[in-house]
Specification:
The protein is built from 11 helices and 9 strands. 45% of the residues are buried.
Length: 267
């Protein structure tokens, strides 16, 4: 695991409450994770998410993952937990607009201390968001606590690739994205096993590099005006975003940064 000092939960909240969050949604879409709908479908199919199940989405952001699960997997209900108040409120509004509020509930809370009951969820879900949580052992422990025996923990996340990040590269990635740390495949596997789960899959998806090439191209070649409008036409901020995306893509092409996919079953 690579880590830095000086990143706090308030730093993460400021990203999604401000212009950076709007920029991410401009580029990634409502599903703010690598691969969008295709990634969500892939994860759900591999994890065996089925109709009638009850789930929990830890670090649910605006609830796009939960809306996917209700619309495409016909789950009975999903509870989303997120620490950013503005995002939780936006998620509630979007679920109301989509007519899905009866199946989806939001909790404004720390994902490591959700307050949800023990062993009631059929599955726990996450998409490229657990990288923002500093206490990864606590997060995995919480996921294992709230899922029932035989239930599934299924998530994707930014991870350090097999080639490894140098200390300088890690500082650029973690500082730029407001991550306190970044885990690897082996690290997440160990945390899941220590929390009483059998790991069914811990692998790289292969999406990271080509998607970040795409995101940088989108801003540079098509969405420049839209991005400038979000940041008050401060071109230096848009240039910095493009540079950052090119950096991430380059690291991913070198095998140093990846999107990991994890599926585990609680014993």
């Amino acid at each position: 695991m690579k880590s830095i000092v000086g990143v706090s939960a308030s730093d993460v909240n400021s990203v999604y409450e401000g212009a950076e969050g709007e920029l991410f949604e401009l580029v990634f879409g409502e599903q703010i994770h690598i691969g969008g709908l295709a990634s969500s479908r892939d994860l759900a199919e591999r994890a065996g998410i089925a109709a009638g199940q009850h789930g929990v989405d830890l670090c649910c952001c605006n609830g796009a993952g939960m809306r996917f699960l209700v619309r495409f997997c016909d789950v009975a209900s999903v509870i989303g937990v997120d620490a950013t108040a503005r995002i939780v409120e936006r998620g509630r509004e979007r679920c109301d607009e989509a007519g899905l509020a009866q199946s989806i509930r939001f909790i404004h809370a720390d994902a490591c201390d959700s307050g949800l009951p023990d062993a009631e969820a059929d599955f726990v879900w996450g998409e490229d968001a657990w990288c923002y949580v500093a206490d990864k052992p606590g997060l995995i422990s919480e996921a294992a606590r709230i899922v029932r025996p035989g239930g599934v923990i299924a998530f994707t996340d930014w991870v350090e690739g097999a080639a490894g990040l140098s200390d300088g590269e890690a500082e650029l990635v973690l500082g730029g994205m407001r991550f306190d740390n970044i885990e690897g495949l082996a690290g997440y596997r160990a945390l899941l096993e220590e929390s009483g789960c059998d790991v069914l899959e811990a692998s790289e998806t292969g999406r990271f590099a080509r998607h970040f090439d795409l995101y940088a191209d989108m801003i540079e070649m098509q969405l420049t005006w839209d991005a400038l409008k979000i940041v008050g036409f401060d071109s230096s901020r848009v240039d910095l975003l493009i540079t950052g995306f090119r950096l991430f893509a380059g690291l991913a092409h070198q095998g140093k940064l990846a999107q990991g996919r994890f599926i585990a079953r609680k014993r």
